[in-house]
Amino acid sequence: MSTATSEVSTSRRPITVVVVALVLLALTLWSTYSVIANAASEFLITTLAALVLPSILLATILAGGAAGILAVGLLPWRPLLAGPAGGLVVGLLAMAGTLVAYHHGPAVPYVAAVVAVTGALGGAAAAFRPLAAVTAGIAGGVAATGLGLVAAYFQNDLVDLFGNQETVGTMAEAASRLQLTTSVVSGVLAGAVAFAYLRRTGLALPWPVYPAAGAAAGALTLVSTLLGWLGRLPLTEIVEDYSEFDAQIIYSRLPEQINHGMIVLFAGAFVAMILVGRTIRRP
C-alpha cells in the first residue's frame, strides 16, 4: 500500500471532511444567492458580489482541498494530477452555484473562472506531505469557517452583546471587538480540531507537523483573500464608476481579511503546538 493510500485510510477516511466541506460550500452559495437575488439594481448586484466573493472562495478552496485529498487516496500514483483534478470538480460545482446567484451581473466569465481555479488550487494542496496533516488543516479550516458563518448569522445580536448602544461610535467599536474575538476563537478552534484529527489518526508524526496543520486554516484563508482581491478587481472598478465611496468600502475589506487570516494562522499554530507539547513525554 502506498504512503498516500495508507495515510488516507488511517485518517478516519477524509470522506467526512469532504462531506462537511461541501455542505459548508453549499450553505455559503445559498447565502450568496439569498443576498444577491434581492438586489434591485446592477450596481447593488455588483457591490454585493464583490463583498461576498472572498467567502465563496474560502469555502471553495477548503472543499477543493478535501476533494483533492480524497482523489489522491484513490489515485496515489498521480498525486500532482489527482489533487488538482479533484479540486477542479469542486471548483466547477462552486462556479455553477456562483453563476446561479450572479448570472445577470457584469464580469461573469472572469468571476466564474476565478472560482473554478480556486477549487483546483485547493486540490493542489493534497500534493503536500504528510497528507494527514493537510487533511487535519482543512478540517480545522472547515470548523473555523463554519464558526464564521454562525457569527455572521447572529451578527446583530452579537454586536449588541459586545457593546453596541445604537450610536455610530459604539457600533463601530462593538463590531471591531466582535471581529477580533471571532478571529481569535476561529484560530483556537482550527488549531484544536487539527490537533485532535492528527491524534486520532494514530500516526507517529514529528511535533512540527502539528503547528503546521494548525496554521493551515489561516494559510488557506490568506490564499483565498488574495484570490478574492484578484477576482473582484473588475467588479470594484464597475462599482467605482457608480460610487467611489462604495468602492472604498470594498477596498477597505482587504486589510480586515488579511488581519483575520493572520490571526487564524498564528492562533491555530500556537494552540496546536501547545496541545502537542502537553502530550510529549519528558525523560
Automatic annotation (TrEMBL):
Transmembrane domains' residue ranges: 49-74, 81-102, 108-128, 135-154, 174-197, 209-230, 258-277
Source organism, top-level taxon: Bacteria
Keyword tags: Membrane, Transmembrane, Transmembrane helix
UniProt keyword Metal-binding present: no
Protein name, UniProt field: Integral membrane protein
Source lineage: Bacteria, Bacillati, Actinomycetota, Actinomycetes, Micromonosporales
